[in-house]
Amino acid sequence: MFSVKPHSVLCLSVTAALVLSGCEREVKPAPPFKRTEYNRVVIGNSVEPATLDPQKAGEMAANTVIRQLMDGLTASDGEGKTIPGLATHWESQGDRIWTFHLRDAQWSNGDPITADDFVYSFRRLTDPKTGGIYGGYLADGKVLNADAIMQGKARPETLGVKALDKKTLQFTLTESVPYFPDMMVMAWTYPVHRATVEKYGDKWTQPEHYVSSGAYLLKGWRVNSHIKMEKNPKYYDHDSVSIPAVTMLPAGNEFNRYRADEVDVTYSVPQDQIKSAEKEFPGQVHHITSLCTWYLEPNHRMPPFDNPKVRRALSMLTDRNIVTKVAQRGDRPAYQLTSPDMQGVDQIAPDWKDWSHEKKVAEATRLLNEAGYNDSKPLTFEVLYSTNESSRKQISALRSIWKTAVPFIEASLINQEWKTYQDTRNTGSFTLSFGGWCPDFNDPSSMLNIFRAGSANNVFHYENRAFDKLLDDTLSAGRTPEERTKLYTQAEAMLQQDTAFIPLYHQVMVNMVKPDIRGYSDHDPLLNYVVKRWSFAPETPEK
């Protein structure tokens, strides 16, 4: 925490159910910011990336760094819309055969970027030997043979992607996928330099070996300290890249470092500092309405959450308005997976949403009694969450809400560091966990696909063939957008009926940006920023 001079304070007491108390200090605006260095931008990233290998990456932290180092077939602009990347244009035959035309571009070592680079990389992504978190991504995109390859039933060479010539790449799909170009914005679809990967193996991602296709080069990586990048002189759009260098830091102490002018862009703002930050740094606190949704993940294979009555009761007792107030970001209460801002789906709510508190408690108690839980046999379970103060406060609030409503609910909290937490979830070694999902592209399938049986992201172990069929039906040839919206909405209703998960809120991201940075967008719901579009104002002085 930072130290301040003596000041008058306004102390706020919050109900016991919130498990919160705090004080708000009198805050004065900080002196006007004046940049002394124009040679780099320093950015807080969420956590330490697990890898910078596109085909092995999966979490947002890695995606953010790779997006600066590499380009894909497509990209997204400051409003989340799909735009050309290494492909200048594309066309399809009935949304089943997609052809991408590549621009003249080079790898950072001077080699030309060709369609064969993409073929190699997509095969590598889908090959189970790679062990990529998103190995099933092309299967979700209905690329020919992707599912069989992922399951080890076919060779990677049978994947439905081929180079028609050095600058033309073609995909063959088994279904009509109108959003296929949108899927190509994500880091795990970016090509890698084959000769480098084969020469150095897992060590190819070290700074001295890394070969880039994007605006920046990897110049240094000290784990849990920083990642350094510099402009790539071989980048096809090198002249439009304004900022010479980028340093990314794990999010740890970024707020204090922002105060000390050591960080230009933070990943977030501590929830108890948002209001004071807005007063101290007027105009520098940004609220971005994302498409991310946070929820509780019941493990359907583990008691007590293998019982739908328990899942429904707990969801019914969860006061989403209180949870959003705890975070203080302006998050919106959620009753379904997809955000109200996502295109192609309608908003629906469970039948109990507008019931009185008393009626919800009575019905939840009845369901729990029928499941065998009562004063003599309490409902006990653990809630897993990643080590984070905001998460701790939210889960603590929920525990008090449940306990106050139904005294025989006894939840204990378990926190783990990010990588351990991810391993625990992925191996199914939990009963209930606190998690969230941000879509890869602006289509409901990018959210709903995580509930498909067999999906690597289905940590809930939810299985419903009727649900899977609904998602398959959205890809039937000739489907109109209106018909797809209806099917997606039915899929959401099925998740609600099964209480497949417990939605909490649609997230608003809050961070801070120095006032002289231009090009940073508050309107990208996918949060896919790229530094190559930023600049300083005033411009870097002439030397």
Relative helix content: 25-40%
The name CATH uses for the topology of the domain at 290-507 is: Dipeptide-binding Protein, domain 3
- Shape label: globular
Report the sheet-strand fraction.
15-25%
CATH level 1 name of the domain at 290-507: Alpha Beta
Main sheet record:
6 strands, mixed
Cα Rg = 24 Å
Pfam families: SBP_bac_5 (PF00496)
Subcellular location: Cell envelope
GO molecular function, one term: peptide transmembrane transporter activity
Keywords: Signal, Transport
Key words describing this protein structure:
16 helices; Dipeptide-binding Protein, domain 3; four-stranded mixed sheet; globular; disordered N terminus; Dipeptide-binding Protein, domain 1; 543 residues; alpha+beta
Q: Could you characterize what this model shows?
A:
The protein is of the alpha+beta class. Helix 10 (320-327) runs antiparallel to helix 12 (389-405) and helix 15 runs antiparallel to helix 16. The longest helix is centred in the last third of the chain and has 18 residues, at 481-498. The strands form 6 sheets. It has a 6-stranded mixed sheet. The chain contains 16 helices and 20 strands. Among the domains are: 50-197, Dipeptide-binding Protein, Domain 1 (Dipeptide-binding Protein, domain 1, Alpha-Beta Complex); 290-507, Dipeptide-binding Protein, Domain 3 (Dipeptide-binding Protein, domain 3, Roll), CATH 3.10.105. Helices cover 27% and strands 21% of the residues.
